Every structure is written in C-alpha cells, then in structure tokens.
C-alpha cells in the first residue's frame, strides 16, 4: 500500500518560476550571442515576453494570500489567465512593430524556451511542494 503525501503548496515556491525563466532566457541569449547581437536580442525578448506574462498571472493569482474561498481562487485564476494572454499578445505586437529587423523565429524560440520552464519546474520543485 502506498502512502500519498498531501501537497503543501507554498506561493513562495511559485515565485521561483520567473527567476528560472529569466535564467533560461539569459543563458540561451548568451549562447546565441555567438551568431550576432540581433539574434541574441530576439531570443531574449521572446523569453522576457513569456516571463512578464507569467509574472502577471502569478501576481493576480496570489495577490490576496492563502485565506480565500474557492470562488475567489477561481476568479483570480481566470483573471490571471486572461491578463496573461492579453499582455502576452500585446507585448508580441509591440515588439514585432518596434523591432522590424528582429528574427521572428528566434523570438518564438526564446518564448518557447521560457515557457518550457513552466513544464519542467514542477519536477525541479518537487521537494519543495511535497513536505
């Protein structure tokens, strides 16, 4: 018989995700810098777009603290997700209009690399979540 441990989720562990995204974006950008500044900036901007969207979602979701009703949590989750999608779209439009010579493929590579942190971070933070 396996014993299941209860997840003790702490909001402080979720704040590591934007830091990991920043680290991945900076590292990937530094690696791509070998090919040129424009390439590195394209990757970095894509990563930052993802980071800002996730940071807004985290702020919207955890702004009231832990003592919330289920209705408030659901409302904050929807508001956070909507804010994240709207801001991410807006930032992509601004970056694509402001930087015409940007390497679009690398912009999306940077975004996807930073987004991949969301998929991998639960594995990295497993020890913090389960106590």
Structure report:
It is a single chain. The protein is mainly alpha-helical. The chain has one domain (11-126). The chain has helices at 11-14, 16-32, 37-62, 70-98, 104-124, 126-129. Helix 3 runs antiparallel to helix 4. The chain is flat. It starts with 10 loop residues before the first helix and ends with a helix. The model has no long low-confidence stretch (mean pLDDT 85).
Please name the defining characteristics of this protein.
about 0% strand; mainly alpha; single chain; about 130 residues; flat
The helical percent reads: over 70%
Helix/strand class: mainly alpha
Gross morphology:
flat
Order of helical and strand elements: HHHHHH
- Tally of alpha and pi helices: 6
Largest sheet: none
Tell me the distance between the termini.
19 Å
Low-confidence sequence ranges: none
- Annotation, overall tally of beta strands: 0
Give a brief outline of the structure.
The protein is mainly α and 131 residues long.
Tell me the layout of helices and strands:
Elements: H1 11-14, H2 16-32, H3 37-62, H4 70-98, H5 104-124, H6 126-129
